[in-house]
Structures are given as C-alpha cells and as structure tokens.
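We treat protein structure as text, and this decision shapes the records that our systems exchange. Because each token names a local backbone shape, the row as a whole describes the fold. For reference, a complete record is included directly beneath this paragraph.
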Amino acid sequence: MKFVHMTAALILLISGLGGAAYADPNGHTTNFVRFAEGTFERTHGGVWLEFGNGNNEPRYTWRETHRDEWSVYLRDDSREMNMQIDMHRNWIGLEWDGHPMQDQYPIVEADARINGRLVTRVDFDGGAFRMTRPGRWQEFNAAGQATNVFRETGRDAWSVYLRDQSRSMDMQIDMHRNWIRLAWPGHDMADQYRITASQ
C-alpha cells in the first residue's frame, strides 16, 4: 500500500501543471519573486526589474551580481543598494549606506519557470518563434525555414505580445498557460499552438 501511495505521488510530481515538471525555485533557478508591495522579475542579460502592484512600468532596475545554492544577489548602482533574495528563508534582504543587510520583505511567491520577461524562444508542434534581435521575432517552420516576421509590442510578467503588420495579426505568447494565442481580422484572440519547449 505504501508503494502505491509513493508511486501516485511520484506521478503527480512528474506530471506537474500542464504536463510539465517544475523544480522548486532556489538560488540557481529563481526568475520571479512576489512580495506584498510588488515583484522582482528577471529579464535578459542579468537585469532584474522591480514592479509595484498593478503597474507594468518598472520602478527600479537591478543588476544580478551572483548566485549561490539558496540566494540571488542584486545591485542597484543608482542607489548604491544591495539585495539578497533568500530562497531558503523566503526573505528579501536589503543593504545600503549605513545599513547592514537586513530582512525587508517576506517572499509570498517565487517561480523558476521561463516567464514573459525572460523568454526568447518558444517551440510548438510544427515550428518555433524566436527573438532574433530586440523587438523582432521570427517564425520558423518544422524544417527550420524562416517564414513570418513579428514585431514585439510589449511584455508583462507572463506574456510577450507580438504584431505581424503585413497580416494584421496579433500574437500572445502566454508562458503562464503555455499557449501561443492569435487574433486577426474577424477572429478574436484564441489559443492556437501549445508550447512544447521554451528558453
């Protein structure tokens, strides 16, 4: 009986949400943390953005300096401030001139998945979409041939928004639900392709 329960638990762990397995966030994997007043979200090139609740405009920019098993360390050069995102204790600590590192905000949510701020490629059954340079995405078919070009119009915590002006087509790459969604004249935004891999 114990074996059956352990097997069932293992199956649930592997299947995860939406058919994918996600590791618990730690110092090496964390990309997103939420605290009572907002979020810290990892983007490209070691940059993290701080957002207030309900606002998609970053209020501060942080530079990732290093990581260890349980923490991510950030620096805001403009304010000469250091941060430790401590995933072992679930606290965000701050240090600035005259103030040693101390707990500031309890972490209420953390995630290690590739998110809307971070994603640069998504694969689906039949092809892929890849960011080829900032603001520009290219669609590739299953044979790896370039097809359509999209312009990036925005990002938020869990999605990238694209536009193919030549076809009057809008796209949402929804990393929270793992779907590519499309809208074009006469067709409202709807799920089209399930995301099978991302980076």
User: Anything to note?
Assistant: Confidence is low (pLDDT under 50) at residues 1-21.
